[in-house]
From TrEMBL:
Species whose genome carries this gene: Dyadobacter psychrophilus
Lineage, broadest ranks: Bacteria, Pseudomonadati, Bacteroidota, Cytophagia, Cytophagales
SUPFAM superfamilies to which the protein is assigned, alphabetical: Molybdenum cofactor-binding domain (SSF56003)
Signal peptide boundaries: none
A Pfam family the protein falls into: MoCoBD_1
UniProt xrefs under SMART domains: Ald_Xan_dh_C
Gene3D superfamilies recorded: Aldehyde oxidase/xanthine dehydrogenase, a/b hammerhead, Aldehyde oxidase/xanthine dehydrogenase, molybdopterin binding domain
InterPro entries: Ald_Oxase/Xan_DH_a/b, AldOxase/xan_DH_MoCoBD1, AldOxase/xan_DH_MoCoBD2, AldOxase/xan_DH_Mopterin-bd_sf, N-heterocyclic_Hydroxylase, OxRdtase_Mopterin-bd_su_IorB, TAT_signal
All residue ranges annotated as the Aldehyde oxidase/xanthine dehydrogenase a/b hammerhead domain in the record: 211-297
Source species, domain of life: Bacteria
GO MF term (any one): oxidoreductase activity
Name of the protein: Isoquinoline 1-oxidoreductase, beta subunit
Length: 720
């Protein structure tokens, strides 16, 4: 319940139980520490919206607007975040409109879209926001009726008085409610009392995406806006020596040709921008541009050289430790080598950004995955107060980590500043696919063995890979980083309890290729080696792969998940006319088990018949979004396993479009069943944990069918 008197921001955060995440609920915080409600009134008409809390506005007709402060790239925050707030606000999602919030960390707290964090990191705060707004509306109605607010309750966008049956809509109450202080403490609903959380509600963005009215970055237009494309160095690091733009400027509509930069992990990358009054003219002008590059001072590597270097790094001496002694004393041992390729992000919507830079302000629009970082980066580089840097999010046609990076908004802002006009910079498919940064490739040395009870006794995985960054070719000689008491991305936590001797380490490999995170960073490569090698250990022990894993699980939560996977897939009664494989992963707070069935067709080719997935993400919002996320993760994992990879030749990326980097076609997609665990655990991630388990599960199934181990991705199903 609310308390009288002023209170400080620190006091509110402590009493409301918020974690270290700073969350401002539409308030101003004067220097004295006293608080005052911050009300935004758009006009003086009866229909004007009033901001009740930072996430919630209500107009005079009672229409509720809930702001989504996170990016929406298909993962479902556009629905999930408002659905959380609406539950405690007591409004139907059918009566809610949703808008993107601008970047504003003072108002909304951190707004990154990464690490599957939107629900698992914010659900308590968002529930509290909805409940606080509800209580303010109830208090406003009680004041109007001159009754105790405990005699009132909220339902379906109205406040009702139990005794008299009086009812007032939120639109009649919002102005009075907005003048009240949000209560310090509110009672949140028990999960059993939810009306919309946990329900498979239709996503509010689907209709607009089907009928074409949804605004993605490429759809956004400003009056007087120009268009730009950039010729960038195909070797990434090379500088512009000179360029000849005579032919380019002869193209009708071309207005400017200028040198431009973008910054990738602190390293300046150069290019030449062609600006025109239409995208077509800019692209045509670019084809006529002649650029001479200075490519001295860094290596021009090919893929073969990169992986040779990684494999050489794997063979460097390891420090003597307890694992070595344990491994020598293991009853039965095995070793294996695994390899993962470089990958591009290849989002369906290539990178793009609109920038309008003035002397004292910057405003950008586009598919922005990490609004706060980009806002802060532009503020710092242009020396403009962060309050004068507006970042407007549109829908994203995929992100996967790439659109969190600040390089492409910076490039657009620099061009706009130079030409003193709003400009949209568009990356072509070829730019998007070949300019990086990329997911780094990796190689793995795996050693381990089982004891006389057929359980894992020793387990070691050492990797060699590029660290995420601009490239490490100028670093000192790398040294092995060992993690004998740490972990490896994607490995289920119970293994650390049940395996008596384990060791993990990584060797940073030097290369100038720019690398960055890619959906399920770390786990998307490490899980392939981990879960494939655990399968090898199961066969070394002559044990059923699922039962072998289950024997290592101590915690009931993991036992329940793998038992569920066995049940829904029919693992114990699986027929022998196909191959079956399974794998598990745990990352970003989510745990996923997948079982894959494959078969050999009459033409001799292997087909992926079906994928069973069990997701344990604890407390969840919308089961349909979860299923869609896991299905999308599996499709993306199919592509990364059997369809595509990025290769390099003479320091340049080879694959530049989908004819050489083929995505899965609809005929390649198997049947999928996605099941969700019901428990009382805290919420975990979905969009990232759903991906890593597929590749090892598929390869384990192929081994079951053919006896052949797949230790290198991608591979061609037709050639197995």
């Amino acid at each position: 319940m609310g308390q009288k008197g002023d209170f400080s921001r620190r006091t509110f955060l402590q009493k409301a139980g918020f974690s270290s995440i700073v969350l401002t609920l539409g308030w101003q915080w004067p220097a004295s520490g006293a608080t005052a409600c911050n009300i935004v009134q758009f006009d003086s008409t009866a229909q004007a919206e009033t901001e009740l809390m930072a996430w919630i506005s209500i107009d005079g007709a009672g229409k509720v607007t809930i702001f989504n402060h996170r990016s929406e790239m298909g993962q479902g925050t556009w629905q999930a975040i408002p659905q959380i707030i609406a539950e405690e606000l007591e409004v139907s999602m059918d009566d809610v409109q949703i808008r993107f919030a601008q970047a504003n960390p003072q108002k909304y707290g951190p707004q990154p879209q990464e690490g599957s964090f939107s629900v698992r990191g914010w659900y308590q705060q968002l529930l509290t926001i909805g409940a606080s707004a509800r209580e303010m509306l109830i208090a406003a109605a009680a004041n109007q009726w001159n009754v105790d607010k405990d005699q009132c309750y909220a339902e379906n966008g109205h406040v009702l008085h139990r005794a008299s049956g009086k009812k007032l809509g939120y639109g009649m109450l919002v102005k009075d409610a907005a003048a009240l202080k949000p209560p310090l403490l509110v009672q949140l609903k028990a999960r059993k009392d939810y009306k919309i959380i946990g329900k498979p509600l239709r996503r509010n963005d689907i209709v607009s995406k089907v009928n074409g009215s949804a605004v993605f970055g490429l759809d956004k237009q400003l009056p007087g806006m120009l268009y730009a494309v950039v010729e960038r160095n195909p070797r990434f690091r090379g500088k512009v020596k000179n360029f000849d733009d005579k032919a380019t400027k002869s193209v009708k509509g071309v207005t400017h040709v200028l040198k431009v930069q973008r910054v990738v992990f602190g390293l300046v990358y150069e290019g030449v921008a062609v600006v025109a009054d239409s995208l077509w003219s800019a692209m045509k002008g670019r084809t006529l541009l002649k650029v001479e590059w200075d490519d001295e001072g860094f290596e021009h590597l090919a893929s073969e050289q990169l992986f040779t270097r990684m494999n050489e790094d794997l063979e460097k001496p390891l420090p003597s430790d307890d694992f070595e002694t344990a491994f020598k004393n293991t009853s039965k041992t095995i070793d294996a080598h695994y390899e993962m390729p470089y990958q591009s992000h290849s989002c369906m919507e290539p990178l793009n950004c609109i920038a309008n830079v003035k002397d004292d302000s910057i405003e950008i629009w586009g598919p922005i995955q990490e609004a706060n970082w980009i806002q802060a980066d532009l503020s710092d580089r242009f020396k403009i107060p962060i309050a004068n840097v507006k970042v407007n999010m549109t829908f994203l046609g995929g992100g996967f980590g790439r659109k969190a990076f600040p390089d492409y908004p910076l490039e657009a802002a620099l061009i706009s500043k130079e030409i003193k006009t709003p400009v949209q910079v568009v990356w072509t498919r070829e730019d998007d696919m070949s300019m990086g940064p990329f997911r780094p490739g990796a190689t793995y040395k795996c050693r381990g063995g089982v004891d006389n009870q057929n359980k894992i006794f020793s387990f070691q995985i050492i990797s060699a890979s590029q660290p995420i960054g601009p490239g490490q070719d100028k670093d000192a000689t790398p040294e092995l980083v060992t993690k004998n008491t740490g972990g490896i991305a994607g490995l289920v936590a119970d293994y650390y309890k049940s395996i008596p001797h384990y060791s993990f380490g990584g060797m940073p490999t030097k290369s100038p290729i720019p690398t960055m995170w890619w959906r399920a960073p770390g786990a998307n490569v490490d899980t392939f080696a981990c879960e494939s090698f655990i399968d090898e250990l199961a066969h070394l022990a002559a044990q059923d792969p699922l039962e072998f894993r289950k024997a290592h699980f101590i915690t009931p939560r993991y036992q329940a998940l793998i038992t569920k996977l066995a049940s829904v897939s029919g693992w114990q009664s699986r027929n022998k006319n196909g191959g079956w494989g399974m794998a598990l992963t745990e990352c970003f707070g989510g745990i996923v088990g997948q079982a894959v069935k494959v078969s050999r067709q009459q033409d001799g080719k292997i087909r992926i018949d079906k994928v069973y997935a069990v997701m344990d993400c604890g407390w969840y919002v919308n089961p349909d979004i979860i299923r869609a996320q896991v299905e999308g993760s599996i499709v993306m994992a199919i592509g990364a396993s059997v369809n595509h990879a990025t290769h390099f030749e003479d320091g340049r990326a080879i694959e530049k479009n989908f004819h050489t980097y083929p995505l899965p076609r609809i005929g390649e997609i198997p049947q999928m069943e996605v099941h969700i665990m019901e428990n009382d655990e805290k919420p975990g991630g979905v969009g990232e944990p759903g991906l890593p388990a597929f590749a090892p599960a598929l390869c384990n199934a192929i081994f079951d069918l053919t006896g052949k181990r797949i230790r290198k991705l991608p591979f061609k199903l037709d050639e197995v």
